[in-house]
């Protein structure tokens, strides 16, 4: 077992996040070069979303978020069930109605999230669940997670208990649900990966749970350590991107989560790449010192809560997004900043440990580029093999100081 020692199985338990998707505000498609890929609204619709847990326990709770909404969101019903061997079908014998204060319906005020009542539903580590949510009213989809790496299914009408949804519309996004929380064995802890699209999983196979955080979760499943992915594609450390900046969301996505012991930080690529590109054509170029100052703020806040902070070096991205509608993401001067920042991450001692993802992913023959075997093809995002290599780099002494 990576965490070391025998698994702890006492009678008492502790609520721990076992799955999460960091929510972000939707955007008008003309404001960014990437479309949001979801409808503006849904009415009288069932949404079914698949989540892969990290740790297991005897009861679970579901969190639903309206953090970026300007109008109340009414949830007409919520069900959770395990999957059959067929990926798109649920085992109806496990189907549970989820309640909020004893009621099947709940209304979430703008800027809020709600957490369900405990659901008596034992779940195993690495279990896959279907969470089905019904929206009876016209509902603006203002709060979502853009790159789910897992298809959500949407059908008209209330079909919460159906074993299989008929002719669904498929979306590559997470809608409204933000966490699954589990009543886990006492001593269960959590690791949070705070990052951008490389952590979010952009580039890995859809519906296959091949992010580096998924591989790490599989390694730690027997040690009662949850791995929470707090990546947002397009995220930045210092300024808002396709989501609020990491310094602003640190409380929500890391510090406020129960039983977190370690945060792995992999941010900075978009801080360097966005200025002067199609994403932020009028922004001034990022400096290494500005990023370093931001890292120091994040480290100090995490240390104040007793967390171990692992710094991930920034992977190379020469040629990033060439041939797409995004222009100007890479320049030689941007790589100079990346290398200055990486030298500080490696040598400053500010982080408790360093995960040298740059060394893992770069091409030794062309170190400003990703290794072709790890490149999904856009010269920015690692593929399945690259993500697996990143997970292997997170040794026990890096993650746990053991």
Automatic annotation (TrEMBL):
Q: What is this protein called?
A: Lipase
Q: Which GO terms describe its molecular function?
A: hydrolase activity, acting on ester bonds
Q: Which organism does this record belong to?
A: Trinickia dabaoshanensis
Per UniProt, residues of the SGNH hydrolase-type esterase domain are 193-389
Record-linked CDD domains: XynE_like
Q: Which residues form the signal peptide?
A: none
Classification via SUPFAM superfamilies: SGNH hydrolase
